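for the recovery benchmark. tokens below, seq after
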């Protein structure tokens, strides 16, 4: 989520809270693809547009197959919940098999499909999952448009806290790198 201060929020603001669950839309490429194809645009045209705009890689397979989302989920679960897992440990299903017919069917019901990242504690162990899900139009996640991202952190004391990053550009990504470097430097002392 580029420069969104998720780790600092938990470390510095939610002192004494235990994170029990994490949910989010963490891959802007798949979010954009699903949204644009739901508008009736051809998949190949959507990919070309995203490449022109600079946020879809030359080979978008890592995004489309859910690997990028699994990596981000693993990082969140490791930092926020002490999981000690890798992206391979995340149960993963990308959007590669979603058809235009499925998108149209879900749309007719008034819903959308989003690639959802999830982490929780089951039987004392942190588990993670990435999968496409049908989301109702009244859910906050259905309103995450374009290249925006969202994460919901659930804690024992504060319950659900949701952060939305709206259409990030290169400045937010650069700030994220800068912020991470500052965090590392502060923790070296």
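predicted aa per position
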């Amino acid at each position: 989520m580029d420069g969104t201060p998720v780790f600092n929020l938990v470390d510095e603001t939610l002192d004494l809270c235990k994170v029990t669950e994490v949910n989010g839309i963490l891959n802007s490429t798949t979010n954009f693809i699903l949204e644009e194809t739901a508008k009736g645009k051809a998949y190949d045209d959507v990919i070309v547009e995203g490449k022109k705009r600079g946020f879809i890689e030359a080979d978008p397979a890592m995004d489309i197959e859910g690997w990028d989302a699994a990596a981000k989920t693993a990082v969140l679960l490791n930092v926020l919940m002490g999981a000690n897992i890798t992206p391979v440990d995340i149960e993963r299903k990308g959007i590669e098999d979603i058809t235009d017919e499925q998108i149209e069917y879900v749309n007719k019901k008034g819903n959308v499909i989003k690639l959802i990242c999830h982490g929780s504690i089951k039987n004392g162990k942190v588990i993670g999952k990435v999968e496409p899900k049908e989301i109702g139009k009244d859910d906050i996640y259905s309103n995450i448009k374009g290249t925006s991202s969202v994460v919901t952190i659930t804690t024992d004391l504060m319950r659900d806290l949701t952060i939305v990053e709206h259409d990030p550009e290169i400045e937010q990504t650069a700030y994220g790198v800068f912020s991470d470097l500052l965090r590392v430097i502060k923790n070296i002392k």
